[in-house]
Amino acid sequence: MHAELEKQGPWISRLSGTTKIVLLLALSAIGMVSYDTRYLVVLTIFALIFFYSARLKWRQIKALVYAIVGFTLLNLVLVYIFSPQYGTQIYGSSHILFGSGFLAVTAEELFYLLNMTLKYIFIVPLILAFLYTTDPSELAAGMNKIKIPYKVCYAVELSLRYIPDFLREYRQISFAQQARGLEISKKANLWQRVKGSSQILIPLVFSSLDRIEVTTRAMRLRRFGTQKKRSWYKAHPLSKLDWFLLGVTALLVVCGIWLFQVDQGRYYDPF
Amino acid sequence: MKQETMISLQDVSFQYRNQTEPTLKHIDLEVCRGHKVLLTGPSGSGKSTLGNLLNGVIPEEFPGELTGQITINGHAVSELDLTSLSFEVGTVLQDPDAQFVALTVAEDMAFALENDAQPVSKLHARVKEWAEILKMPQLLDQKPQELSGGQKQRVALAGVLIDNEPILLLDEPLANLDPAAGRASLELLDTLAKERNLTVLVIDHRIEEALQIHFDKLVVLAEGEIVANDSPDEVLRSDVLLRNGLREPLYVTALKDAAVDLAALSDLDDLLGLQLETKAQKKLHSWQAQLPAPSAKEKGAPLLSGRGLTFGYPGKPAIFQDFDFEIQTGEMAALVGQNGTGKTTLINLITGFLKPQAGSLTLAGRPLLDLSVKERAEKIGYVLQDPNQMISKTNVSDEIALGLVLRGVPAAEQTARLEKILRVTGLYPYRHWPISALSFGQKKRVTIASVLVLEPQVLILDEPTAGQDLAHYAKMMDFLRLMNEQLGVTVLMVTHDMNLMLSYADRALVLDQGQLLAQAAPAQVLTDAQLIKRAHLSQLSLQVLANKSGITDAIGFAEKFTIHERSKDNARRA
């Protein structure tokens, strides 16, 4: 029955949308709270398995990765500058590696920053892997399964559906306005460009409102929103692999909570 | 045996809440199970309102005062809401992009069933079943952007037929399709209706195109009242269509003008099956022999020409390879061809929205390629199909003057040019009006004026007559002809409308897969069977008529007929 769903491809793309969402939400929650290095390393390895199986091409993710790396570095520098002694506060000891005074670099601070970086290192590959291997409709179906109202889920899907149409419309209007004599290229100064953009926005807003009205009618004529529940063509029952991964996720979360007990708090203190 | 009534309206009137007059007045209409009805009428006649009454959009979305009794499949509509009505009446909207709400074909087909929260296994089974019926299992994973207009319409049909509604309502199904796709769509509808005993209501004003399949009834609405409700054969015999600003099939007009005795002809709506007796043939023969032959319009000097143009989107095969074309000074040319064959790309190359990878473009011998979009727009005006995509001001004069303002034309000159164009275009009385108060046709006229005010040498129009009935359409085209004759503006229209091309273009450029298949007089193009097939055009009904009556020169016949029609138009206006 679900023959068409068993497409060839990496196993990650065959995972149910529900599994991916639950996994992502659960692991990012526990991962954000915990500062246990050993635990974060385990999560990172777990995330990298997904990342590798997604077989992403470097050019697909290049821009995103650069942006995230840049942001993380900036974040680390800022955290250090604003509270260089925060590590000492947490771990209650101070091993100065070099420097002195307020900005002295301590082993504790570096260890704290390492833990923070690990959080990014584990969450980013996970998000990237899911982002590129999940069909938007399946995502919507998955969101609905964890009790997010289906109208919200469908809104997500619908916005993805209409992005290409919207872009085409934008381009068309922009061309037409340029032909009227609107200069929005680099030849014009900033103020002219801002003013010019409003000239594109007005027709775009009006035509989008029209579009929304007609689309809403088309949906209502096929009974959208009349029932409490909705089924999804792209939903498929959880497979063994799904259950297995959900089990692993549950185990990891329990493990994380248990570590709070062991560490007597969120931080693992090697000092 | 009495046939079962599926749709019944008794003394139905409807007035929108914000209007002072009722849009529908005392409508009585009965449609039997398994019948196909073509509902037609000029813009504003109330035909869309009638459709919206049947599927429940009225009064749910547009409140107003409704009187009379509407019964659908035995249920009084007053007791049904939009949801329960949707199980009786499946609606296919005019705009295929709005109708297609899901991300893939399969999901869109399943949409209604998903909303009923049917089990997933059933969704898959039904989608599979309907994909087989409509012969499109290979399309199931496609996205809407990847489909042609005809394919989108097939998906739309599947999306409403999937839950077995007995009644199908189609709003302007021919509006967005090229002639061949339109015909295919109608034939599919015909087959489905027969196989499943569907009751079909088609709302459209393209009567000749729609009548390519058999309809049981042709209903004509005008000013909110039914002015004809009979077999298409009977309606065509009368003059009710022309009297109400609708276009009659050309062959019917020809038969009438030749004074052929229509009472002796049966099945006038079925052109292919039409039997002409010797007497009728003779009449037609002698009538066309006395029609004045067209005087060849003098061939102008080349104005806009492209040489060796090559263009392709990055990573995709080239759309144009070493492509040549030429538009002559003072002509009205039509650019035709099937959807997705490069018409829009060519226009975008001319207007500068796209840059060719090789080749040259010249206007009156001067190279164009170095000029920006803005600079080219002063010489080549471009009017989009949808006026709402062009209009960015709230008042008519401001909108028309915008191009002058943005170009820094001195105020005194602005006023003079604005006034001149307002007068020429007949928009002078509306100059202080808010644009939102204008009709679609008037808005279109505003956009043309706003381009003409820049005094371009060439005017390019994308589907100039889309969304307009004959009366508005003729006004618009006569206006363009006037601009062509008085201001000497060369006109290039991109169109799917074969009637438009025949009646108004001096020359047709037939584009197919980045090649010009033909550049010839419209009558010549529309009678060339091979060309018609390759470029997705449709055969001229006049040609079929010519063949049936032994007129050998079908091209000459079509050309003479066009001249005759034009002189009738002129006489009517004078």
TrEMBL record, chain A:
The record lists the membrane-crossing segments as: 12-33, 39-56, 63-82, 112-133, 241-261
- InterPro entries (alphabetical): ABC/ECF_trnsptr_transmembrane
Report the GO terms under cellular component.
Answer: plasma membrane
Subcellular localization is given as: Membrane
Q: What is its main location?
A: membrane
Q: Which UniProt keywords apply?
A: Membrane, Transmembrane, Transmembrane helix
Q: What membrane topology does the annotation report for this chain?
A: Multi-pass membrane protein
What CDD domains does the record tag this protein with? EcfT
The entry's protein name is Energy-coupling factor transporter transmembrane protein
Q: Which organism is it from?
A: Ligilactobacillus salitolerans
UniProtKB/TrEMBL annotation, chain B:
Entry keyword Ubl conjugation = no
Question: Source organism lineage?
Answer: Bacteria, Bacillati, Bacillota, Bacilli, Lactobacillales
Q: Where is the signal peptide?
A: none
Name it: Energy-coupling factor transporter ATP-binding protein
**Membrane topology of this protein:** Peripheral membrane protein
Give the top-rank taxon of the lineage listed in the UniProt record for this protein: Bacteria
Stated family: Belongs to the ABC transporter superfamily.
Gene Ontology molecular function, alphabetical: ATP binding; ATP hydrolysis activity; ATPase-coupled transmembrane transporter activity
Cite the ABC transporter domain residue spans from the record: 7-248, 304-538
Where is this protein found?
A: Cell membrane
InterPro entries named in the record: AAA+_ATPase, ABC_Co_transporter, ABC_transporter-like_ATP-bd, ABC_transporter-like_CS, ABC_transpr_CbiO/EcfA_su, ECF_ABC_transporter_ATP-bd, P-loop_NTPase
Taken from the UniProt entry, a GO cellular component term is: ATP-binding cassette (ABC) transporter complex
Q: Which UniProt keywords apply?
A: ATP-binding, Cell membrane, Membrane, Nucleotide-binding, Repeat, Translocase, Transport
* One Pfam family cited in the UniProt record for this chain: DUF3744
Question: Which gene produces this protein?
Answer: ecfA1
- Species name for this entry? Ligilactobacillus salitolerans
Query: What role is this protein assigned?
Result: Probably part of an ABC transporter complex. Responsible for energy coupling to the transport system.
